[in-house]
Amino acid sequence: MNLNIGLFLEISCLVVKSWSLKKLIIKRVGLKIFGIIERIGTKPEDTDEICLQKSLLVISTLFLAFLGFNWGLIYFYFGELLAGAIPFSYAIFSFISIGVFVFTCNIRIFRVNQLVLSMLLPFFLMIALGGFMNGSAVIMWSFCGPLGAIFFSDYKKSYRWFLAYFGLLVLSGIMQPYFLFTTRLPPFMITLFFIMNITGMSVLTFLMIYYYINQNKKVISLLQRIITCETDGYSTPAERESIMKDYIEEAVDMIKTMF
Prior knowledge:
The chain is mainly α and 259 residues long. It contains 8 helices and no strands.
């Protein structure tokens, strides 16, 4: 009996050690892959904020391409070849644009390509599925265009992307009575896509707003420290100047990541 218990404990220890080793390997490989992705399209002379903007754009593009690839496979499975080809082609174009970006490092072309694709392809997908209802409000994903313009482009000009998005919505409403396509998707899949589309865009919008507000509060907190720094009891002007310099540098870094 004691032998069996001892054997069981030894096996358990080996399993735990093996799983810990696997987790460590997966973590290191994941960090290495993430580091490679972060460096895509960057140049030695790029500033920290430009590098951050490039890495976030590449990561978001890969995420949306992965979604588009799987969306396309689902549509193909249910016989919606035209509808499936649209998100599938988005994934292909995204991978190609990332490949071009690796060699050109031109963030402007890469950014415009992704904003245009992310805004127009959901509109075409809605048409291929037969309108708002049959398309499960997939046009909501076109809102990625204005959102991306705020985060990755000149936010002062992002209203143009929003107006373009609003124009697509109005055009969709005008075209609705004339849609000739009918979907082969079963009712439960239409409902499921409704839930996925609404949830996906809601989560994405919430996370971006949460990120902005969180960073904004951190900057405000740092600025308050800078304002009150002179009255915090530092003994010499040199100490006060050093502390204020650190606070200002930290605040500037946060502001750069916000815009």
